[in-house]
Amino acid sequence: MDSLDIAVVGSGIGGSLIASVNKHRDLLLFEQDRNVGGCASTFKRHGSYFNTGATTFVGYEEGHVTRGLFDRAGVEPDIKKSGIAMRVVQNGKELDRYQELDRFLEALELVHPHPGNRLFWSTLRAIDEEFWRIDAHYFAKHSVGNYFRTALFASRLFGIYGMKLFRSARSFIDEVLCDIDGEYRKFINAQLLITVQSHYEDISLLTLAIALCYPFHETYYANGGMGALIEEVLRGVEVHRGEQVLSIAREDDRYLLTTTHDRYESCNIILNSSIYQSSHLFVDRDIRRYYEGFELSDQSAFVIYMKLSVMPKLHHHYQIICDETIPNTISDSFFVSFSDIGDEKLSRGGLSVTISTHTKALYWRNLSKEEYEIRRSETEGYIVAKFLEYFSAIERSDIKDLFNATSVTFRRYLGRYNCGGKLVDIGNILQTPSNNTPFKGLYHVGDSVYAGQGWPGISIGVVQLDRLLGE
User: Fold this and answer.
1) Which of 36, 252, 262, 348 is most buried (CB neighbours < 10 A)?
2) CA 269 – CA 249 distance, rounded (Å)
């Protein structure tokens, strides 16, 4: 039986980053799929490559937490800076999310004119910049010392933001953007669904700032797909692909792992699986109860994959906002990602396209087989029609491959129904899962624990977990 210092279960963004900065230790990463990356993987079907879900790489800029992790791991990613973070299309009008504030405000005034625009967006950007300058995030539970250090971090946040820390997004919008029309509100909420899967009525001002300001950071395209980026992160890490962890038993101060191929023992376990679907891994009743105590975040995605036979020159990312809610979803918008024309892997023979929108995770699981096929066809048909309506240079006959994925698909291939976790906000911070657990040597990382989803949020969690491993 192999004896390890650290066993990482899952090769998503969090698992790959924590493994990369600890590759000098006796560490082994297990991935049940042949492709690494989880929701940020790239897969091959019918001879073409597609990004599974996540397609935007944000945070690789000087001084940012994600850049710091890459530098520590000695990884120089093969990436290309996007001209704009995304183009937003709404009621026939286009709004580009430029990184430069003044340029964005100039474009915004043409689509959503308002006398409060400069104050609103400049305030949000200032709040966001202050947040990313903080270099000592601390959030841990399950001991007096951890709670004390977490309280010190909270007091530091209060010292930086004062009462802004407790202000709601809604009150700020009502004050600064008073009487904005429904179209502007839809634009803001559609942007928020991408990053925090929520609407402004339900979040704090701090969360609003971080969520809306990510396009003001450098945004990159990963050559060869997001999976290629994860492969670079994992260079030098021992990875067992196609080896699923079946069970984990606690024995004194060690953990015994049984996989589809072998048995291992490890001092530390790091789970990069969803915290809502990890209880089944454990033999120990107390650990099972701990994971069963988390209520499922019923958020997931409906994703469409296309391979085009043409290669029109387009931006990397678009958001299309519709007039009504997309059938069988909880969103009135969808996000479109195109492979870069110069990407020799994804764009071989035509552009690769990933389109996603938000749905309820359990909705698809509870349908009968017949209903499931009808509903997924209905949702795909609606989105494809809207896609072709806007991208007039693309004909229906130019789509040479088309298929979709629901939460049921993600459960089959990625081991999870949901995508992302619950919103981390000042109102629910005490209920937010931390990177440590009540059990010595058992840790969690990824989008369903502190500090949330996306490369920046997950990176904060990785730094926090790395600190805990060193304590």
Assistant:
1) 36
2) 11
